[in-house]
Amino acid sequence: MAAEKILETVDHYKSEIERLTKELTETTHEKIQAAEYGLVVLEEKLTLKQQYDELEAEYDVLKQELEQLREVVNLLKKADYC
Fold first, then answer.
1. Sign of CA dihedral 21, 24, 30, 33
2. Measured between alpha carbons, how far is 26 from 39 in angstroms, rounded to an integer?
3. Which residues form a coiled coil (predicted)?
4. What is the pLDDT along the chain (82 residues), one digit of tens a residue?
């Protein structure tokens, strides 16, 4: 009788170990997936930041060119009036 109780307890602990091992494996897999997703998001963020910086630099160049063109137009207008 006591031996049966011990065997039941051992079986219960074995089942619990199997369940916990499976749960740990699943949780670890989920964490790995989340980390991989985080890396993808981070890479995308870095790419977007680089594109933004490039567009901002291009904007600054175009803004400067526009200002220079406005100055030329103003000079041409003044030359026509003189």
1. negative
2. 20
3. 3-79
4. 788 888 899 999 999 999 999 999 999 999 999 999 999 999 999 999 999 999 999 999 999 999 999 999 999 998 887 6
